[in-house]
Amino acid sequence: MKLYGIPNCNTVKKALDWLKANEIVFEFHDFKKQGVSETKLKEWSEQSGWEALINKRGTTWKKLDPETQNSVVSEDTAFAVMQDKPSMIKRPVIETSKGLLIGFDENKYAEYLK
Hints:
Shape: globular
Number of helices: 7
Radius of gyration: 14 Å
Number of domains: 1
Number of strands: 4
Oligomer: single chain
Strand order of the largest sheet: 2-1-3-4
CATH superfamily: Glutaredoxin
Helix content: 40-55%
Mean pLDDT: 94
């Protein structure tokens, strides 16, 4: 299992704490340090849709100029912005054997990961 996120994100911290408390082994991928490939974004998009990957509530999205925000209308344009600003990706993203989990939801974690 692999968890993608940013270590100082509060939602990622909740997910990490939950995984550790439930003794679930995982590998951590730091978006800020390691980035995210277009191939990986496409893989996730096939499972969840590209719209689910964008965190429009976050500071990074809100700081984008309106022109850039309005340009995000397709998978390709979204991927370009997400690769340039990986903190715009909703997090955490967890790859599991049962599917993809985006964000932190304790009930879904219990269902998918236990």
